[in-house]
Amino acid sequence: MITSGSMTLAARPTEATSVAHDRVYRDLRSRIMHGDLPPGQALTLRGIGKNYGVSMTPARESVRRLAAEGALTMSTSGRISTPELSNERIEELAALRALIEVELASRALPRAHMALIERMQTINAVIAEAVQRGDAVSYIRTNLEFHRTLYLRAQAPAMLAMAETVWLQMGPTMRALYGRLRRTEPPQFHRLIIAALKAGDEPGLRLAVRSDVTQGLRMLAS
Amino acid sequence: MITSGSMTLAARPTEATSVAHDRVYRDLRSRIMHGDLPPGQALTLRGIGKNYGVSMTPARESVRRLAAEGALTMSTSGRISTPELSNERIEELAALRALIEVELASRALPRAHMALIERMQTINAVIAEAVQRGDAVSYIRTNLEFHRTLYLRAQAPAMLAMAETVWLQMGPTMRALYGRLRRTEPPQFHRLIIAALKAGDEPGLRLAVRSDVTQGLRMLAS
DNA sequence: TGGACCCACTTGTGATCACAACAGCCCCCA
DNA sequence: TGGGGGCTGTTGTGATCACAAGTGGGTCCA
Fold first, then answer.
1. Tens of pLDDT along A23-66?
2. What is the spatial distance, in angstroms and rounded to an integer, between the CA atom of B130 and the C1' atom of D6?
3. Which CATH superfamily is domain A87-221 in?
């Protein structure tokens, strides 16, 4: 059983849906995306229901929805668990991140004003703190917030949704990767992204984003 | 009730799941992707259940899963319908198709042997027949089969799944578009795709695929 | 001591029911 | 004749139950 913690995900104004299955879905999704759960973690409908104080029905709908997004896998007998990704799958998802996020960054560039860049610098400082604390969950969450802050400016909701789906699938594995490679410094390419944004340098931005989303992969391969 | 047709989707050995919600899901998904349902078509859980001879529970799970993939939308009060896409959304989805499918085609190119190209030519002939009959559903289905046949060679299941998710979201709208623009000849860019495959011309292939997936859009804009 | 079998329990699936909310429709009155 | 209010039927939500299938462990025999 995982402690729900103070999830304070930035800027989600419309929160109170009050619909049970949606509340369960959102919380589980956030936990999975941010690496709260390790790869291969088993879950049960009755367990989820008891955790959220609901019956099996909303738990089942949440799980079904998350499974459709690739955030959970279901064995042939229906057992639920977080995915354990093969190396090929990880590489493919990283390639997808590169494809989609480079495009999102490129579309966001003309709209990236100074206030946005400053916000990204602030987030980057929070990432540095998380790295120093060795806090994997906080690092992953803040890192994704850095990217999402930029991509929201692209005004491309379908593309952003695709990118988030990839993040969701990689969540548990990202946590495991983080624990393995033991970062000691904040991501270097974030500086390049910010510099390219300030300079209005589109090719440089594309390269920086591509490098950033595939950097962890190179460390894994070694 | 729509005839399942001879989908002969290459290599789907494990078909009979016999699980009710999965059977409903697959049939609904196929119908939506291939344009059997117009945009804005309303659906009800009890109606779906009656159609497939099941209770509301499997119907609800199928709908929830399809909604998660963007194949269905749910109003704030929970009403279910196929999506009605804005022009901006259509353009965005076409851009996503271009991004992902160009990459898939590029990855498939080194593995595209003559047998595959011949199969694609056969499919292309079927497309021509569907166009002459003015059969929108058959045209959409065969056209997607043409693309999927190529992309399966890319050995990139996550990317292919993303591409299919986009197809799914565009399904109902594709049907409406087809009815509006009244094709009289088979897609010209399919020839270019096949020619580029034969020549091993990677830049040419990328351009042909990009042109093919965005051609309908240009007609819409006029 | 090692392995195979068996049983009990856990777990997902599907059906059914009660309920609240919304939609559409009709009627009535100005 | 037009618009507002109320009502009925429809629809999604969540809980509960019966059931089948698979898992895991414990026991018994060789």
1. 999 999 999 999 999 999 999 999 999 999 999 999 999 999 99
2. 53
3. GntR ligand-binding domain-like (1.20.120.530)
**Six-digit token pair at B142?**
């065969």
Instruction: Check if residue B19 sits with its Cβ under 7 angstroms from strand D.
Output: no
In B, minimum Cα distance to A25 occurs at B68
CATH no. for A20-81: 1.10.10.10
Interface pTM, i.e. ipTM = 0.86
Tell me the pLDDT tens digit for each residue of B110-123. 999 999 999 999 99
Distances (CA, A) of B118 to A200, B9, B124, B149, B195: 47, 16, 10, 11, 11
Q: Look at B89 and A158 and tell me if their CB atoms are within 8 Å.
A: yes
Where exactly are the structural domains of chain A? 20-81, 87-221
Distance B59 CA to D28 C1' (A): 47
A101 touches chain B (CB under 8 A): no
CA angle A67, A68, A69 (to 5 degrees): 90
Q: What is the pLDDT averaged over residues A181-186?
A: 70
Total Cβ atoms within 10 A of residue A91:
17
- Quote the CA–CA distance of B173 and B215 in Å, as a whole number: 15
